[in-house]
Amino acid sequence: MSRGLQMVGGKVKKPGKRGRKPAKIDLKAKLERSRQSARECRARKKLRYQYLEELVSSKERAICALREELDMYKQWCLAMDQGKIPSEIKALLTGDDQKSPQSSSNKTLKNGKYNQNKTS
User: Fold this and answer.
1) DSSP structure string for 68-108
2) Looking at residue 54, what is its pLDDT?
3) Rounded to whole angstroms, how far apart are CA atoms 30 and 36?
4) pTM of the predicted model, to two decimals?
5) What's the CA gap between 45 and 52, in Å, rounded?
6) Is residue 62 pLDDT above 80, yes or no?
7) Is the pLDDT score of 87 beyond 50?
8) What does the pLDDT read at residue 90?
9) Does residue 85 contact residue 79 with C-beta atoms inside 8 Å?
């Protein structure tokens, strides 16, 4: 066999340019790319945390609003249990009757009063 040829597993291998080349990457360029990648990663992480913090604060505000609404309904229920009708409920009821009497299909106007139609 000639000098550059090798016998491997029954095949002749020639030394050549195939295969993985040794890494001759500039070390400074590699470090700079690594630093840049780390900067970008930190920036993405910062944006992600800002987004999550804003999401949490908006959800907390929504929870507070719902709790206040629930407390209001509890107060209304307590007042009605004592036989009092809260002014807000009166306003809602009278406002609904004045706005659209035709909206409720099972009520008819007789002698100036609303009566329930009974289906039997």
Assistant:
1) HHHHHHHHHHHHHHTT---HHHHHHHHHHHHH-GGG-TTEE
2) 98
3) 10
4) 0.48
5) 11
6) yes
7) yes
8) 85
9) yes
Tokens matching residue 113: 């009063």
Given pLDDT bands bounded at 50, 70 and 90, which one contains residue 47?
very high
Q: What's the rounded mean pLDDT across residues 12-34?
A: 76
Phi, psi of 7 (to 5 degrees): -105, 115
Q: What is the mean pLDDT of residues 64-74?
A: 96
- Report d(CA 42, CA 9) in Å as an integer: 50
Q: Output 24-31 pairs: Cβ under 8 A, ≥24 positions apart.
A: none
Token pair belonging to 59: 């959800």
Q: CA torsion 108→113→114→116, rounded to 10°?
A: -90
Q: How many CA atoms lie within 13 A of 120 on its CB side?
A: 3
Alpha-carbon gap, residue 64 to 58, rounded angstroms:
10
Crossing angle for the helix pair 87-99 and 27-81, to the nearest 10 degrees:
90
